[in-house]
Amino acid sequence: MRALILVAAGRGERAGGGIPKQYRVVAEKPLLQHTIDAAQSLGLFARTVVVVAAGDSRIGQLVGGFRSVTGGATRTASVRAGLESLRDAGVDEVYIHDGARPFLTRALVEPLMEALETHDGAVPGLAIVDAIKGEDFASVDRDRLKRVQTPQAFRYPAIMAAFDALAPDASAHDDIAVAREAGLNLAFTPGLEANFKVTVPSDFAKAQGMLTGPSMTVSGSGFDVHRLETSDKPLMICGVEVDSPLALVGHSDADVGLHALTDAILGAVANGDIGDHFPPSDPQWKGASSDRFLAHAIALAGEAGATLVHADITLICERPKVKPYREAMRAKVAEITGLSLARVSVKATTTERLGFTGRREGVAAQAVATVELPR
User: Which of 44-53, 124-133, 212-221, 308-317 has the weakest average pLDDT?
Assistant: First the structure.
């Protein structure tokens, strides 16, 4: 028999909201209800146990064929309580999952089931793509590391014996740590990026977007102009310093490309314009690097449940020449936005010597930002 333990006894304070995160409403239901529903829709578990905090009455508001048990002061104590509740139930395999991970799928569970045919335990893991440094800035070999998710799956007799061997007040990082200490034979299976744990406030917007069904694609446009003048200041365009005796005039660093893209993102989520968020009358923004403005717009889009999927910037000028810097500009915009290079376009054109750009008096930029939003 296969059983599932959902650990939901934490307070979830990092998520804000004034109540434990597992009971905050997302897409019209408590987060924990979504996790229960996802688990039961798989049809893989004969029993589901939800571990809750002592005195927790909110669990009574949730529906589904599950049993609730009282957890302890630590995650280890709560998992132990869940395992104890299954001791005489004839369980062969147990899957221990965070109640705040509502995106449980067969693609995640079935490789764990296969791994338990030859191992005592298994855990989904994801590769680390960012560079890893220690506190002394020394590099760490990321190929030897994984980001670990749940459910963590075990042959029930083996993991129950491992917990029985623990001291009553022991606290481990996770269940795999207990299994490793007991010498169990363990395996990694593929994790899924979508199987994230709702932890901080911005995660709720992400979960909302994923739980409300298919997204819609929305575009926003931005336009900006800055005058050129001789200056000792650097000429910044799309986050890249351009070699020139001229600079763009503005309260911040006057990065016309990043300003246009910032406005395009704000437009896509209907959240005002760059002047609303960074007024030129505010002295704190004098000389500020415009990547801060762009990062702020992306964060606001995330809070609205939006995901930036493409950025297209057109620079309009007779000078400076953009082409030698174009690839560096694309790379910088990709770095700031988190987009892949293939999703960032930087182009340049002239106005055939017409207008202020044709007279080489300034640089203009227009941008289009494409985002995906929940319906």
Answer: 212-221
pLDDT of amino acid 209? 78
Q: Which residues are CB-neighbours of 218 under 8 A, at least 6 positions away? A: 268, 269, 306, 370, 371, 372, 373
Place of tokens 């297209």: 312
Phi, psi of 118 (to 5 degrees): -130, -5
Q: With helix as H, strand as E and coil as C, how does 217-238 read?
A: EEEEEEEEEEEEEECCCCEEEC
| pLDDT given for residue 81 in this prediction | 97
Please choose, from the candidates 310, 316, 305, the residue with its C-alpha nearest in 3D space to the C-alpha of residue 350.
Answer: 316
- Residues 6 or more apart whose CB falls under 8 angstroms from that of 255 comprise 236, 237, 238, 239, 248, 289, 290, 291
Number of domains in the chain: 2
Residue 131 pLDDT greater than 90, yes or no: no
pLDDT band of 214, cuts 50, 70, 90: low
- pLDDT value at residue 74: 95
Choose one of 176, 191, 211: the last residue of a domain.
211
Which residues does 241 contact at the CB level (< 8 Å), separation at least 6? Answer: 234, 235
| CATH number assigned to the domain comprising residue 122 | 3.90.550.10
Q: Measured between alpha carbons, how far is 137 from 354 in angstroms, rounded to an integer? A: 52
Question: Which domain-ending residue is among 211, 246, 265?
Answer: 211
| 205, 219: one domain | no
> Do 141 and 191 belong together in one domain?
yes
